[in-house]
């Protein structure tokens, strides 16, 4: 009898499990596409830079307003209205993705020895900080806009130079998952290249 009772309990549990399967959803529905940034300028394999030829630099994650500190892609509809592109999102937040792209682009120029901020945060070198002001789509002008405020500081924290960089790229076709990635990547690369060129003109320590 005990064995029969256990079988009935097991069957009831299985039946309840099947019923719940149709009612409960575990996790949000994944987006159809994940986007990332790809650096146009990359460090060639085997490249070495001597510490005597270039100072070290830590590229910090830029600050970002809440509207940009998300994996969703904002679309500026008007001066006071923002929407988000559906069915697509970034693989990471834009500030993390842009930090990686910026570090790779600067390293490719050879003007600085770029160090990972997580491993070398205490190294006595220069530090590039800043903020992402724009990183999304402007619907009225149908363009992707990336704006970055760069701040270069010495090891003691004294600001050596600061400058704003911005780039626009047209969005071809209807604004949607298939059309926003390429222009945002191109605009981000333009800003990163301009920052790298600017650093080569700033006085070294």
TrEMBL record:
Species for this entry: Sphingobium baderi LL03
Residue span, ABC-type transport auxiliary lipoprotein component domain: 44-196
Signal peptide residues on this chain, from the entry's feature table: 1-27
Listed name of the protein: ABC-type transport auxiliary lipoprotein component domain-containing protein
InterPro entries, per database record: ABC_trans_aux (IPR005586)
PROSITE patterns hit by this protein: PROKAR_LIPOPROTEIN (PS51257)
Keywords: Signal
Top-level taxon in the UniProt lineage: Bacteria
